[in-house]
Design brief:
The complex is a heterodimer of chains A (315) and B (41). With 315 residues, chain A is mainly α. Chain A is built from twelve helices and no strands. The chains are: A mainly alpha (315), B mainly alpha (41). Chains A and B meet through helix 3 of A and helix 1 of B.
């Protein structure tokens, strides 16, 4: 590739006469950044776990296509989100360098890109995999864009609780891609991610609270304070641990998963309790919150990995 | 546009075309594979 690569953050908006820019010629990395690749990684991983955990073997090509569709649809949802949230993103340090607030892409380009990704991923899923998986895929995009981004995010501090459901769809879609239906197991996987989202996001929101405040996003720490947020995240933790143990308790997973879920849940609960007991208001001293946020990612990866392995080993 | 801006524009356009070409080739291979698999199932 000719020339030094330009990162999305560093990609310059070409200056023209009179201070105008050439955003319509954004770098391809800007388009990639629109898809939120790091979020996509979690989406792909949990979808793959859902696909593997399903009691039906899928041809690798069909399985790959299903995962590709889920990844692309996740990218579409991320691009729609950035298209709608450009004004909020511009006010937050964490998101100000995204392609739209930094001016390297136009809103029209972002919207067109998101539409192409959404339509192509849902269509391909319907044509190649099955209609149930395609319907849930479409529902997940609409849920994330319309329910979370447009409706809830700027209106209620409970935004991420309900919006978290959008991120909980991938394992269900992976399962549906394999089986063509939705049973109790994919619903439990959905429930685990749904209950994992509040402590995960609120831990993050606690130590970047001032950023959300500046952007006018009614995150719980902004509207109800740090103490209430710490309490709320702690309330969800036993629910999460209970949901994570349910597959084992219901006989849908074996002892390998049961032991791993119990151990991971115990660590999560301890870290969540440390956050609950923490009283500091200074972000630099919020080590328990940062620990919980970091561990919550490891937790979900490990839990779903063990669940998929358990289902394969003890099938 | 200055010559530097034109060069930067050409570079970006070229890179985007390469990426798009790569995606199209990958999709052609994928659709071929899907067709073969579908015929066998």
């Amino acid at each position: 590739m000719a020339g030094a690569p330009i990162s999305p953050a560093a990609a310059p908006a070409l200056p023209l006469g009179g201070g105008a820019v050439l955003p319509e010629y954004g770098d391809w990395r800007d388009y990639l950044a629109l898809t939120k690749p790091r979020v996509m990684l979690l989406v792909v991983y949990t979808a793959l776990c859902g696909l593997i955990a399903a009691p039906v073997t899928v041809h690798p090509i069909i399985g790959f296509t299903a995962i590709l569709c889920i990844a692309v649809a996740g990218g579409a949802a991320g691009a729609f989100n950035q298209w709608y949230e450009a004004d909020v993103d511009a006010r937050m340090k964490r998101t100000a360098t995204r392609p739209l607030p930094s001016g390297t892409l136009t809103k029209q380009s972002a919207f067109g890109f998101a539409m192409v990704l959404a339509v192509s991923s849902v269509s391909l899923m319907a044509l190649v995999v099955n209609i149930v998986a395609a319907a849930i895929l479409l529902a997940s995009i609409l849920f994330y864009v319309l329910i979370y981004t447009v409706w809830l995010k700027r209106r209620t501090p409970q935004n991420i609780v309900i919006g978290g459901a959008a991120g909980a769809f991938p394992p269900m879609i992976g399962w549906a891609a394999a089986t063509g239906d939705v049973t109790i197991m994919p619903l439990l996987m959905f429930g685990i991610i749904f209950l994992w989202t509040p402590p995960h996001f609120w831990a993050l929101a606690l130590f970047i609270e001032s950023d959300y405040e500046k952007a006018g996003v009614p995150m719980l720490p902004v509207t109800h304070g740090l103490r209430e947020t710490r309490k709320q995240q702690f309330i969800y933790t036993p629910l999460l641990v209970a949901a994570s143990l349910a597959p084992w308790a219901l006989g849908l997973a074996d002892v390998l998963y049961g032991v791993a879920a119990a151990a991971l849940g115990l660590i999560f609960a301890i870290l969540s309790l440390q956050v609950y007991l923490n009283r500091t208001e200074e972000p630099t001293e919020m080590k328990p919150e940062k620990r919980l946020f970091a561990f919550s990612i490891v937790y979900l990866f490990a839990l779903f990995g063990v669940l998929a392995a358990d289902r394969v080993i003890f099938a | 546009m200055t010559p530097e801006e034109e060069a930067e524009l050409a570079r970006r356009r070229k890179q985007r075309n390469y990426v798009l070409g790569g995606i199209l080739i990958a999709l052609a291979v994928l659709f071929y594979a899907i067709t073969i698999v579908r015929m066998k199932i």
